[in-house]
């Protein structure tokens, strides 16, 4: 499991991320299970586990590119229409690439302000429903999610309320060569969310 650290040693936040392959009997496609453990206040859940398809990752990337037109979005592994979907070497290589994609997004502070990204990571609603939320076609709220009316895309700040940046405007401090700042509350969706059974109910934050 990859661990992303930020902050001072005495009040350090972390995000642990692991992507695992899941193949159901008689399924026609592979799903990838995104497991997160965190104490980062940008996240609604301390622990979550949700499954997404490769095509879902592609749609997420498109939404992020539209939301952040002046920010470079990490690349995804390419489509491979001539590969056997269940070839285990191919599946494992894709899993590693998808995990790397998510780590790179977490490393760039600006993406933690994205409703689409948070809903993708920690809710069981479909990617189509996420698109409806982001497009303003759905407008009712789950009581378990914090409501922030206006979504921010500003850079995050450290515990001293100072922007952290390198030449690309990104923070650097890492375990496993990655890092992110944590003092930001994200804007999370306007739809009744049915969370996956694997989310620990006790970890739901009350608002």
Structure, described:
By secondary structure, this protein is an alpha+beta fold. The chain has helices spanning 54-67, 88-107, 115-122, 127-134, and strands at residues 2-6, 13-22, 31-38, 47-53. Strands 1-2-3-4 form a four-stranded antiparallel sheet. The longest helix has 20 residues, at 88-107. Residues 10-127 form the PX domain. It is found in: Cytoplasm; Endomembrane system; Endosome. This is Sorting nexin-11.
Q: What's the overall geometry? A: globular
Strand order of the largest sheet: 1-2-3-4
Mean pLDDT over the full residue set: 72
Give the helix tally.
4
What multimeric state do the chains show?
single chain
Class based on secondary structure composition and strand pairing:
alpha+beta
Number of β-strand runs: 4
Family: Belongs to the sorting nexin family.
GO molecular function, one term: phosphatidylinositol phosphate binding
Subcellular location: Cytoplasm; Endomembrane system; Endosome
Main location: cytoplasm
Task: Give a quick rundown of the structure.
The protein has 207 residues and is α+β, with helices and mostly antiparallel strands.
List the SSEs and their pairings:
Layout: E1 2-6, E2 13-22, E3 31-38, E4 47-53, H1 54-67, H2 88-107, H3 115-122, H4 127-134
Antiparallel strand pairs: 1-2, 2-3, 3-4
Helix pairs in contact: 3-4
């Amino acid at each position: 499991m990859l661990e992303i650290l930020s902050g001072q040693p005495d009040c350090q936040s972390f995000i642990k991320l692991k992507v695992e392959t899941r193949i159901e009997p008689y399924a026609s496609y592979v799903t990838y299970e995104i497991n997160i453990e965190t104490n980062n206040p940008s996240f609604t859940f301390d622990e979550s586990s949700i499954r997404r398809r490769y095509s879902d990752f592609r749609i997420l990337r498109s939404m992020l590119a539209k939301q952040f037109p002046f920010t470079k979005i990490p690349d995804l592994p390419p489509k491979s229409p001539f590969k056997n979907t269940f070839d285990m070497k191919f599946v494992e290589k894709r899993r590693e690439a998808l995990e790397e994609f998510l780590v790179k997004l977490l490393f760039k502070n600006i993406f933690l302000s994205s409703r689409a990204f948070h809903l993708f990571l920690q809710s069981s609603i479909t990617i189509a429903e996420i698109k409806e939320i982001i497009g303003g076609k759905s407008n009712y709220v789950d009581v378990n999610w914090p409501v922030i009316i206006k979504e921010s895309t500003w850079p995050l700040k450290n515990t001293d309320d100072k922007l952290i940046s390198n030449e690309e405007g990104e923070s650097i401090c890492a375990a496993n060569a990655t890092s992110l700042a944590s003092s930001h509350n994200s804007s999370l969706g306007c739809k009744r969310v049915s969370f996956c059974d694997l989310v620990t109910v006790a970890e739901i934050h009350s608002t």
